[in-house]
Amino acid sequence: MARRNSLRGLAGQVSRRAALKGLGAGIGAAALGSGCATGPDRCEAGPTAPAVGPDFDAHGAPTPRRLLAGIDTFVVVMMENRSFDHFFGALAFDPDYPARDAVDGLEGGEANEDDDGTTMAMHRAEVACDHHGPLHTWDAAHTAFAEGRNDGFLRANKGVLWRQRDAMTYHDRSQIPLFYALADQYVVCDRWFSSVLGPTWPNRFFLHATTSQGITTNDPITDGPATIWEKLGKGCWSSKAYAAGPAHWYHAGFRGRTLGGNDPMVCTRVETFFHDARTGNLPNFSVIDPDFWSSDLHPPHSLALGEALVGSIVRSMQESPQWGRSLLIITFDEYGGFYDHVPPPTTEDPRPAFRQLGFRVPSLVIGPSVRAGEVVSTQLEHVSIAASLATRFGIESLGPRMDAAADLSSCIDPAKVGLPPGPMGRLPRIDIDRRRVEEVSFRFTSQPGIEAALRAGAIPLDRIDPRSHEERLGSLLRHAQEFEVARVSE
C-alpha cells in the first residue's frame, strides 16, 4: 500500500495542530507515553506459570517447550514488502554464505511470461529505485500465485513495464550487506510464508491477532478480535510496543482499541527500546515498527536506512544484559509484488478464503541459542510468533489458526540450550548518504492509513511521537553510528 504525499495539509484541526508537527504541519506538543510494561494490581505477584510439559520426547529429543524454555525476551521487527527470492534468493549462489547448498533460493533461469508472450527473467535489481514497487493487492497476489504455478507476476502488473521489471528483481550481498551478514551468523527461515496472500494490513492483523476478520484490504478493524497482547496481559507477562515513526501501526489498524490496565500499546520511541535493552528492562514480548516514512524498506525508501535500523536493533540486543535469553525475529509483512518461486501452501483457518498462505518473506531468527549460519525449512508464518508465545509462556490460544502454526523451536540449537552466549560476530558498517536518504524519505509513506488515522484524530496523543521526520531521522543515524553499523556522510 503506497502513495506519494507531502503531508503538509494536516493543520486544519486546531486542537490537533500542535499534535501533528512530526507529519509536516506538526505532531507536536504531546509527550510520548512511557509504554506500559506493567500490569494491573493482580499482576503484582508476577506472571502466571509458563507452559508445562515434558522436556524430551519418546526418542530423547528436546521438546519445543524445552528448546524455548531459555527464552524470556521475544522481540519482533516487521519490515515492509519484500519476497524471499527478491531479498535472499541470491544466497543460493553466494560463495560466502555457509548454507548456500541448503537454502531454497534462486537457481538461475527463473522467469515469467506475460499474456502477449513477453518473457522476463529474474535479474539483479538497481540499488537506487524511485518506484513504489509492483502491485500487491489481494487480486494481484492471487493473479501472481496462479493456482500454485507462481507464473502470474507479469500479468499482475500488466501494462506497466517498470512494475513488471521490478517484480522480477533480486538483491545480493553487495546491496544489502547487513542482512547477508546476519544470514551468515544466525537462522534463515526459507519456509516463512506471509499469513495472507494479499497486502500489508491483513498480514499485520495476523501478527497481532492471528486473524484479519475477513479483511483483505488495507482497512482498519473497528470491532476487533482478541490479540496476543491481551493474552499476554491476562497471564501477567510484560509487553510493549515501540515505533521508529510517528505512531505504531496497531493504533491505525485496530481503530480505537486500547488494552485497559495493561496497555503495552502506549507506544514508545525506538530510542526507548535501545535504553530498555541497555538497562535490561525489555519486556517478555515487544514489537518494533519501522518508520513507515523512511526506514521500513518499502520501495522507494532507502535500503541503507532500513539496514541501519535493523543493525541498531540487533546490536542493542547483543549488548543487552538480556541477550543470553533473547530471541529477535526480523520478518516482512508480505511479498510486495516481488517474485518468489515457491508456491505457498495452505493451513487451517475458520475462513476458507484465508487457508491459503501468502508468498515467502525474508525472515531471520537471531539470538545466542539459535542454529548459527543455518537454514531452517520448517513451515512458518506470522502466526508462528503467537504459537511460540504459547509454547513458552502458556498463553491462551486465539483459535485453530494459532493451534495449527509451528512455533520457532526448530530454530534453537539443542547443543546451546543453557550455555552462556558465545562471541558476537561482526556486522558491516552501512554507508549512508544523508542527502540521498532524505530525497527518498518523508514525501512518501507506505502506510497512508496511519496518516489518515492521524488526520482524523483517531490515534490518542499519548500514542504519537511529537518529533519531526528530520528529528527522527537524525536520531536514528546517530544511534546507528554509535552502534557502529553505519557511516553517515552529510
From TrEMBL:
GO BP, one example?
Answer: phospholipid catabolic process
Looking up Gene3D superfamilies in the UniProt record yields:
Alkaline Phosphatase, subunit A
Q: Which UniProt keywords apply?
A: Hydrolase
The entry lists its GO molecular-function terms as:
phosphatidylcholine phospholipase C activity
Q: Fetch the PROSITE patterns from UniProt.
A: TAT
**EC annotation from Swiss-Prot or TrEMBL:** 3.1.4.3
InterPro entries assigned to the protein according to its UniProt record, in alphabetical order: Alkaline_phosphatase_core_sf, Phosphoesterase, TAT_signal
Q: Which family does it belong to?
A: Belongs to the bacterial phospholipase C family.
What's the protein here called?
phospholipase C
Q: Which organism is it from?
A: Polyangium jinanense
